[in-house]
């Protein structure tokens, strides 16, 4: 595992024109939030921020913001801003579920979420239509060959061009973490907070890391759960993609081992679930099935099955139910899978995710992307090539062919440093068998930050807080509410 240096570089801009240091934001008036009721105990507002911070009084973009007020106002500590990651996930909806997801934190904090620029209600990126996205998914292969890369590259190039046509270069050039971090500081000021209290998951940990480096004196209580290695993300994307695909393959094999060891909980495969999955994939790859629901027709094929199986590593809690569903699919109930793979919501996510990744990351060349996919396929034989050749946003490696041909270079890109010099301690959380953000990335981030504490969850889950792990929950709560970091070397085990 490649270790991140304590300080890699100064902020390196993709274009040096018109950059604005973080401190210059003091001269930009904070947005005015006018709160209106938009649900039971839920409030909504719009934050108007500069599209281009080098021209703060020119074009603006409206960010959708939501707030769920603290349920114990007498002991309210302020606002806690959440980001669910993705990139491209909807922060407004995530925060609006606070009473279900974070009831203990909601007692002490106003829970605040926002859709980052380019996402959903905040200037949504538009690329393909839903039927066009569905057609790409319907034609995807579970067993692509090297000869299929030409088609993958063509579809990726066409996707980027459609994003440019339907969204415009102005927005696409200002979607990276460097601008979102500035938006977060504008939101902090608009909320009347002296410091930003922040809980970020997955890609949200990268946003938190960038914020802590750009605005170290404005960091309050911060938790980065399911941590991304920031150097790999932005400066070594091919290695990032390779490591992610390999760990996803490994954790899926842990599911197979569990399934063989606990036949009472897993009836799939008759003692050999890996072979059973491969046979099911091959069967539907050779003979795809059409399913018509609600007036729409979609295809269930080998790719659809692998996409369903790919969800298994993300939480051990999913294993019994998904294994039971795979049994039914193997028995002919193919309509049980693939219903959401390319619906309107996921079409929007695909567009935002790809556009944000391409704003953050610089891939060396299309040839290098292809070579990396082939190397990854050898190390992750079940999923490696499928993910590399898959439709946009299936996983980060699926966006390599898009970003290598992206038509709009970002106005600027944050590439370091990542040590958050001058910031208070930051709690970094990692699960030992996290399939999307490998545990070593949490270790690397904790080692990179000048002041940090690593909390380890010995579990199969993507992120740890709120995932049947009372120990992890208690330590995250203890930091955010009581200001007490877990003891050095703390390892939590989930109850399930």
Structure description:
- The chain has 19 helices and twelve strands.
- The chain has helices at 91-96, 98-101, 103-108, 130-138, 149-167, 169-172, 177-190, 203-214, 230-235, 237-261, 273-286, 302-310, 319-330, 344-360, 366-379, 384-388, 400-403, 439-448, 470-482; strands at 36-39, 42-50, 60-68, 78-83, 109-114, 196-201, 219-225, 289-293, 296-300, 426-431, 452-457, 491-492.
- It has a ten-stranded mixed β-sheet with strand order 1-2-3-5-4-6-7-10-11-12, with helices on both faces. The chain has a two-stranded antiparallel ribbon with strand order 8-9.
- Helix 8 links the parallel strand 6 and strand 7.
- Helix 10 (237-261) runs parallel beside helix 15.
- The relative contact order is 0.15.
Global geometry: globular
Question: What is the assembly state of the chains in this entry?
Answer: single chain
Low-confidence stretches: 1-24
Counted beta strands? 12
Classify the helix fraction into a percent range.
40-55%
Round the Cα radius of gyration to an integer and report it. 22 Å
Cα(first) to Cα(last) distance is: 29 Å
Structural class: alpha/beta
TL;DR?
This protein is an alpha/beta fold.
Note the main attributes of this structure.
496 residues, alpha/beta, 10-stranded mixed beta sheet, two-stranded antiparallel ribbon, 12 strands, 41% helix
Helix-strand blueprint:
Elements (H helix, E strand, L loop, with lengths): L35 E4 L2 E9 L9 E9 L9 E6 L7 H6 L1 H4 L1 H6 E6 L15 H9 L10 H19 L1 H4 L4 H14 L5 E6 L1 H12 L4 E7 L4 H6 L1 H25 L11 H14 L2 E5 L2 E5 L1 H9 L8 H12 L13 H17 L5 H14 L4 H5 L11 H4 L22 E6 L7 H10 L3 E6 L12 H13 L8 E2 L4
Parallel strand pairs: 4-5, 4-6, 6-7, 7-10, 10-11, 11-12
Antiparallel strand pairs: 1-2, 2-3, 3-5, 8-9
Helix pairs in contact: 7-8, 10-15, 11-12
